[in-house]
Structures are given as C-alpha cells and as structure tokens.
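Students often ask why we bother predicting the structure of a whole assembly rather than each chain alone. The short answer is interfaces. A chain on its own may look different once its partners are present, and contacts between molecules only exist in the joint model. In this exercise we take two input lines together and write out one structure for the complete complex. Read the inputs first and try to guess which parts will touch.
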Amino acid sequence: MPSPRQKQDFPVQNVRRYLEPGPIVLVSSHWQGRSNVMTLGWHTVLEFSPSLVGLMISRGNHSFEMIRRSRECVINVPTEALVDSVVRVGNSSGAQVDKFAAYGLATAQASIVRAPLVAACHAHFECRLRDDALVERYNFFIFEVVKAHVAPSPRHPRTLHYTGDGAFMVAGKVISRRAMFRPDMLP
Amino acid sequence: MPSPRQKQDFPVQNVRRYLEPGPIVLVSSHWQGRSNVMTLGWHTVLEFSPSLVGLMISRGNHSFEMIRRSRECVINVPTEALVDSVVRVGNSSGAQVDKFAAYGLATAQASIVRAPLVAACHAHFECRLRDDALVERYNFFIFEVVKAHVAPSPRHPRTLHYTGDGAFMVAGKVISRRAMFRPDMLP
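Now the answer. The structure tokens for the assembled complex follow.
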C-alpha cells in the first residue's frame, strides 16, 4: 500500500473518477483535539467545479456532530486489502474506542483540513462543508473537495462496494467505450 | 436478459442492495405523452424507510424538465450487456431523438408511475419526487422509491460503474464479511 508521501496531487474537479463508481469510503474527522473515522456508502458527486460531493452521515454516528461542528472531513477511498478494517470501523463507535489505535490505522496530516488522512487508502479528498441546508431533514451534507491526493498506481484500484448484508462487491475489470464518445465529450 | 414479467417484487426498503454499490443507471421519464431516458451516475441512497434516494440530474438534460414537472421517474439498473446502450443514451438528447426506438430499448409499463421500465435492465425502481428543495441550487432531486422490481437471477448482476473518460468498471467478485457483524446488525 502506498504511503501518503507516495500520493500525488490530483485535480479536485476530477474526483468523480474515484467517487462516481460508488466505493465504500472511510470518512475521517477532527474536533476538539480528537479524531475519528467512520465507514460510509451513501454519497454522490454533485458538481465538477466547484468540486462538490454529498454525504449522508447518519445522525447516530459519533462522527455526525464532529463533522457538523468542525465543518470539515476527509473522504478516504480504501481497497480490498482494507476490507476487515472497513468492517471494524463501520461496526464500532468513536464514542467508545479510538478506532485508529484499535484497528492499527496509520494516519497522515492533511494539507488544508485538520481531519487526518487514513494512510493506507488509495485516495484522500479533503473537504470543507459547503451547504448544510439538508442536514436537519436528511443528514445530507454538501462538501467542497478542496484538496485531493491519489496513489499513482494501480490505475484501477480494487475498491469495495457495499451491498448490505455483510457483503462487498470488489471492483472488477475495466472496459472502455471511449471510441463511442465525440472528442468534445472527453477531457 | 430477463423480461419484465420475470422480475419479482422487491422490498423498497432494501434498494440499497442495488444502488449503494454505485452503478450507472438509466433514468426514464414521461411527460405530456412522451417518454425519455437518460444515463446517470450521480446518485445516493438517503434512507431505508421511507425508501429515499437522491439524484443529481443536470439541468442541460432534456429529462430535467420532464422529471421536474411530472415529479416521477424510474431508476433502471443496467448490466454489462447493455454498455453500448448506456453510452448511446448518455451521448444523445431526447430533444432530438426517441432513444427507445433509436437504440432498440424495449419498455414495459410501470405499476405506479407513468414513466416506462427499460425492460432489459436487471432492476427497476419506480420513484415519486419527495423533495425539490435542492433542485434550484444543485439540480438534486430527492425521490421516494414506491415500487421495486428485480430479476431474481443472477444474484450479483454485473453492473456498470462509470469512471469518466469513456471507461466503465464492471462489478467483480463478491466477498462476505458477514461473520464480523453482530446478528442485530444484519437483516
């Protein structure tokens, strides 16, 4: 697994490349001297530029108030090697346990926000809260990605996609239909 | 590919099973006697019950006004066999072409809404608009899934997950970590 120093800056307007396929993510937070991390599968890209993403962060999570108050988080994209950590993080609460210590998750300092990067992940997206209009009604947070770090390889990480019931789909083969697009439709 | 009559009713509170992994979807609509279909990758589950999902439907799409006015749509989940149709639907506009006829996409009647089911898809989720509070600002529609139809097999469909740049990740193997969950965490 690449260490954070092996990650490269990545254009924030292109985070759809990693988030649109729908991986489970680890969302880290920091508030009043403590950090936490949660597993999250309910998210969507909302805009290329500014780089906006929406996260449904259930109110029962210890992270909910930490993120609501700090107005920041980091979205980390784990791969197959981290599946057990993803489950452990998802099945425990930061109110009871320091998950980073308990599950051996090394962290690294983010560039802009105070929430830590989960070092073993393939990509890290530092986020600032952009709009909380739907937080009360739906626990839906709209963030702007302000900094992105991505491992240069593998080109197609084996991300995890949760189907419920304790089962994950692992990202499979990649097929290109680039030839079916007009040049002006592609970057 | 199963025909619509081979689909089974599926509990609407469980649609996360098909949507949380993040597949590209075909969203069909109907307004003033005409139907349309678009390709969409920016969606998220928001709640189990009521069964809420959020879709970012870009304003430039012909479907935008049809869905905003009819307040309904169907979310259809295509699989690998439909990749060329997914691209053709995504790269054309309902303002210029009847995509169902042009691309040979058979439809079937929905149970509750007037938008058609795209018959060759693995699953169909009939939706009614629940909240348009973020449509003006973010083109973000919150729908309630009011009826779900799913093919009973295969159990793990080879869904398509768009990464941009004309490339799709195809759903790969499934791994279970069910043994790591307490029984009360699972259905």
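Check your guess against this: Chain A touches chain B through 58 residues (CB under 8 Å).
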